[in-house]
Amino acid sequence: MYLAHNDLVELFSDFRGIKEADHFYMTVTDDANEMQTRGLFIPLNENSGELLEAIANGAIAAIWDKKKQLPKYTPNHFPIFFTDNPIEAVRELLQFYIEKMDGEKAEKMNMTNFVFLNKKLLKENKQTYDIAVMLEKISKINLKDDFERRG
User: Fold this and answer.
1) How big is the chain by its Cα radius of gyration, in Å?
2) Which of 62, 77, 78, 118 sits in a 20 to 30 Å window from 18, CA-based?
3) In what order do the strands lie in the sheet with 113-115?
């Protein structure tokens, strides 16, 4: 089950660009240089790269920090979901996706591929790259609160 455009609209009410209910995101990444087939790009820091590079590598939408200016070359139809805190947005997105996947019983299922190359996140996550574990680590690092997940 892929992450869908409507899922992001549910999470991020402040957005611009086309409103395509049938858009599905096969890849979510913070690295513009990563090949991202039907990708959702989330620049987490200055090392994430440029939106133009992400688009060239397959990004079809982005989650963008409200405090940063959107590049002038951004196509009007390109979906941009605005957030006050990109790290928190990743946490919310992962939590949403885990809940969306909860209970799915299909033996073979298409899933969105989450690829995060932010060194700070990886440094805190030496044991695994499982999204559920990453979600827990991100929550502890950035929110310093208790995070419960179903499962």
Assistant:
1) 15
2) 118
3) 15-16, 80-83, 59-65, 39-41, 27-29, 113-115
Give the start-end residues of each E strand in 2-103: 3-4, 15-16, 24-25, 27-29, 39-41, 59-65, 80-83
Query: 79 near 16, Cβ under 8 Å?
Result: yes
Q: Is residue 48 part of a domain?
A: yes
Looking at the domain assignment, is residue 53 inside a domain?
A: yes
pTM score, whole prediction: 0.75
Q: Looking at residue 98, which CATH number applies to its domain?
A: 3.40.1390.10
Q: Give 53-78 pLDDT, tens digit per residue.
A: 999 999 999 999 999 999 999 999 99
Encoded tokens for 79 = 């979906």
Q: For residue 133, is it within any domain?
A: no
